[in-house]
Structure formats: C-alpha cells, structure tokens
Specification:
The protein has 241 residues and is of the alpha/beta class. The chain has 8 helices and 9 strands.
C-alpha cells in the first residue's frame, strides 16, 4: 500500500480575478479522515480541486503539498455526482481510469472491488438500471480501483436517502482505512461520525473543532456523537466574519 501522506495548503486562491479564499492554512493528518465544513461558496470544493490538481483557471498564491513530496498522480476525487457514463456498464465504468490512460484494464481486480461494494452481480448492468445508492457504490468502486493514497470526497453522500447515506458512510470508512481522506460536507452528523479531525472554514480562516471520542465510523446514536453534532451545528450557525 502506498504511503498516505500528511497534506498542507497555504495561501490565497482566486478565479478570474475574484478571490475565493484568502490567507488560509490547512493541515491534514496522514492516514486519517479530516472533515471540512463551512458555508456554501467559502472555498471548500476549491481546496479539493487544488489537491486533486484540477486547477484550470484557478490561481493559488501559496503552496499545496504532501509532507513527503509532490501531489501529482497521488489523489483521487469522489464527488456528489457519480459521473457514470450511461453507455458503459458497471464494470467498464469502474475500469474507466485505466482505459483513459491507455493501460490494460485489470478486470480481475475490478471484480474483487465490485464484490467489496456489494455489486458483483451488477457488472454488466447499465447505470440507468441502478438505484441512487448503487450508482454511488459504482463511483466508490471506481475510486477504489485507482488505489491512491489521498482520497478527496466532495459531499458524495448528500443526495442519498438517510439510511443509504449511513450505509455508504460505513462502507467508505471501512474501505478507505489508512488513507489520507479529506471529506467536504455540510452535514455535522456526517462529520462527527467520520472525522478523526473536524475543521470549520470561515472567511477568517480555518479552525479546529474537537471530534467525539471513539473509532470511526462512530455510532449514530452515541451520546458523545450527538452532543458534538449539536455543538457543531451551533458553531456553523455563528456569523462567519
């Protein structure tokens, strides 16, 4: 398994001459889940794009780095939109990264991963025949297929119903153990279940918020989880300036 490094982002980001965030410093521990919350438009998804190298039109006056070297080719991104290609079946959607890079697809490994996410019987199915939860599991399988040490999650569970969302949180936490995971979310409940570290982004910068005790994913009905969730809701309702 590739080493999962700590990450650091510092500086000011802009797009088309408009500042997105200014003078921030974000430290992400290696091999753990960090959850980043904040108001819409504050720049959370921009941070993911910078770490992922998706910087077309973005300007960063600062640095984005891994503790042990560069970021290129080391991160994978799982977004809210599953971005499945409707003309490909499940297996070929999972193998898409290799095909785009001109590599020989590893069909044996793709079957192993589909088994892990509970979709081994759906390999030949087209996306339009899947439920929302199944489609997101295909996207998860595609992310696992890339096997990168840095995993960037941009609200990947927000469009799912409550029960499916909890199941997907549990599955993703299990499958991304020991990876460096940065999860952008608007859901304090999600952050308190999944975060080894919780950070709140405002126009003034990024601050740490103490997570609950216990192993990730934490029980949804745990008293410490519920208490921390309520406190995090209160913090997010405070003025951002």
């Amino acid at each position: 398994m590739a080493h999962a490094p700590a990450l650091t982002l510092t500086g000011t980001a802009s797009f088309g001459g408009e500042t997105i965030f200014r003078d921030i410093r974000l430290n992400i521990a290696g091999g753990q889940w960090t959850c980043l919350l904040g108001a819409s438009g504050i720049g959370k998804s921009t941070i993911l794009k910078i770490f992922a190298g998706l910087t077309d039109g973005l300007e960063l006056d600062g640095t984005a780095s891994a503790a042990d070297g560069g970021l290129k080719g080391r991160a994978t991104l799982l977004a809210q939109n599953d971005m499945l290609l409707p003309w490909l079946n499940v297996q070929n959607n999972v193998l898409l990264g290799a095909r785009l890079r001109g590599e020989r697809p590893n069909k044996v490994r793709s079957q192993e991963i589909l088994t892990k996410v509970g979709l081994v019987g759906k390999a030949d199915t087209k996306p339009n025949m899947l439920s929302g939860g199944q489609r997101q599991r295909v996207a998860l399988a595609r992310t696992l297929m890339e096997d990168r040490p840095i995993v960037l999650l941009d609200e990947p569970f927000s469009a799912l119903d409550a029960l499916t969302r909890i199941r997907m949180q549990d599955l993703t936490a299990e499958l991304f153990q020991n990876k460096t995971v940065l999860l952008v979310t608007h859901d304090p409940g999600e952050a308190t279940r999944l975060g080894h570290a919780i950070k709140v982004m405002t126009s003034s910068g990024i601050e740490d918020f103490n997570p609950p005790q216990g192993k990730v994913p934490r029980p949804i009905d745990d008293l410490d989880v519920l208490t921390t969730q309520a406190s995090l809701y209160s913090r997010l309702r405070e003025p951002t300036v």
